[in-house]
Structure prediction request, 316 residues.
Amino acid sequence: MNRGSAAPAKAPHQGAIFAAAMVAVVFFALTAPLTRAITPAFDPLLLGMRPAPAALAAVPLILILRLKGPSGAHEWLLLAVSAAFSFLAFPLLFSLGQARTSAIHGGLIQASMPIFTGLTVAIVERRRPGGFWWLGAALAFAGEGVLVLFRDSGPERIASLSGDLLILAASALSAGAYVAGARLAARITALNATMWCVGAAGLAVMPFAAFRAISVPWSSFDLGMWASLITLSYGPMLLAFIAWFWALAKGGVRRVAVFQFLVPPLSVLISVVFLGERLTPPLIVAMAAIFGGIWLARRGGPQASAAEQQKLEPRS
Prediction:
């Protein structure tokens, strides 16, 4: 038999790769608007414990698919750092902050996460960024300053300083922990690292979530509230990352990673159309500065490996 007669595996259609990337983008973009929409009627602290229900799916998947986990002290440390900051601290601080500020503010503050990640990479790996990176970082942080310091006044004001600062802290902690997540993903694959981080974070917070859930009037929630809770628990936390990593693996990091830049403007669009939030002149200036700064920073930032680039996407 001719050894070369075996047919090569058929590559996935480009449309499927595009669809998977867009599924991830939509789930990521929904995080801020959905959180803002339901926190007036739902405990934001309990909502921040959403890794708990996600773990109910992640842990069985780890067992059924036999997904390899950490195998040494260093890998367990990487798992602990990534799970603690990206999958515990981020949803908790983000939910508490988003309950106090507008969805547009939340989405735009999240847009600065690549800057925090680049700074962490530069510090940890001692790789000095180029001039474009520093210029872009300065421009993006100037935009964040406009976002935080210049806000609307009046009875309809919904963006508070405390909410903005909580989301900024969540974004900085999570983006900084991406370096640990990237190194773990390079050792056990990105999908395995994500499932193990979700499982570990969910199991850690599950007793507190169960205790707090006792006082929630679950029977009073309508279909919209249940759909929002299920989407936030399983969409950005699990389904989005599975789709994202599949698209990265099949379509290539360079071609697919650019889709992440659709998340902030899509989040803003959803907030304006469905939540009725207004794009004021300070918000437009801040948005232009943040997006422009991120574009410049990508031109001069420390070059990450393929495994690291897989973790440079927005979190929820």
Q: What stands out?
A: The chain has a mean pLDDT of 83. Residues 15-210+223-309 form one domain. DSSP finds 14 helices and no strands in the chain.
